[in-house]
Amino acid sequence: MQKPVLTIFYQFNPWRSSIGGIQTIIRSFLKYAPDSFEIRFVGTTDDPTEPLFTWREANYAGRALQFMPILTLQDNNHRKRIPVTVRYTAALLRTCLESDFMHFHRLEPTIASKQWQGEKTLFVHNDLKQQAAKQKIPALNHALERYLIQQFDQVLSCHTGSLELYQDRYPNLSDRITYINNSYDDGVFQPAPDRSAHRRVLAQTMSLPEETQFILFAGRLQPQKDPVLLIQAIAALSYPNAHLLLAGDGELAPEVRAEIARLGVPATLLGAQTQTEMLRLYQAASVFVLSSQFEGLPVSVLEALGCGTPIVTTDCGDTPRLLDSKSGVVCQDRAAITIAKALDQVLFNPDHFPVEACVGAAQPYAAQAIVSRVYEDMLWRWKARSRERVPVARSYT
């Protein structure tokens, strides 16, 4: 029996450690893809001997798929002189990879798909308004967006502000633009049976005192995440036995190390971590922290909550709207002393942030359910397409 083909496009290798929420979402779409679909992924390779622009059979988390690398990329956790998105887009321009369904997670590569046939979906992961404020030539980016956005049958945003911005900016497309819950892999990220014992084991492994309480940061070390501000916040803590773990890498790593040394902060840079390693860290951490300038809804927040770990976050993105007084603290201003006080609040009062409340906050974002609904809707549209044109916009909440 013929199956619909879904092709997913993004500039990474799912089988390698790579930092970022977009990568995590894509991994869920690969892992939980039903057998009723043929799945193809167009990405990158870190093996210079692997042929480019050639499909090969692959397996991800037990799911068979077709994989085509179109770019050789040794390290995607540091910015390059020529942005990876530009290189990936240029490579796509050499191909025609149209299929029944196509998922894009950045706008720029869809320059190549403008004339391709098939249903196209754009996933919006970030706060577009804040992102535009950081762009060097916002007018150019806006013009490119206006040129490309009309090709999409669906625009799915996991950030409410970006959803409203697109609906206001493109009223003729409003019926195609809808909200989708960001998601985390609930089949993996769950609380440890004994969190205290888990924490003590990690402390012993790192040759730290058993009473150490871990503060966890996970993400790229780049200006958006503002890890230097976080180091300054740790220096202002009152809690005596805290140790910061930074899981990630990026261009600010040297600056972060220098600030740690300057302030004498108890912190360890761990570099990029695998999913298994991140699970161990989430389960051992007493609190997960975001010091970001802007965000969408970070997958790392959902993973931490799913493991029973409370959140301290700056007031940006959609994280504040999913937290309550039992699952985290939102800092009303983005200052080191404010973040430090919020961390102290959690560390000194762990009983105020029970595991059950954190897991409960994450449950509506469980990937297995959200991803399954997206696939069910695609399959329904594929079957109905021969009979009549069907609407494609739906809210996946």
Question: What does this protein look like?
Answer:
- With 397 residues, this protein is of the alpha/beta class.
- Helices cover 36% and strands 19% of the residues.
- The protein has 14 helices and 14 strands.
- The protein has an 8-stranded mixed sheet with strand order 3-4-2-1-5-6-7-8.
- Strand 9, helix 7 (227-235) and strand 10 (242-247) form a beta-alpha-beta unit.
- The radius of gyration is 21 Å and the shape is globular.
- The protein starts with a strand and ends in a 13-residue tail after the last helix.
- The mean pLDDT is 91.
In whole angstroms, the N-to-C terminal distance is 32 Å
Give me the oligomer status. Answer: single chain
Radius of gyration: 21 Å
Main beta sheet: 8 strands, mixed
Mean pLDDT: 91
Question: Looking across the biggest beta sheet, what order are the strands in?
Answer: 3-4-2-1-5-6-7-8
Proportion in β-strands:
15-25%
- Assign an overall shape: globular
Structural class: alpha/beta
Order of helices and strands: EHEEEHEEHHEHEHEHEHEHEHEHEHHH
Portion in helices? 25-40%
Low-confidence stretches: none
User: What's the β-strand tally?
Assistant: 14
How many separate helices? 14
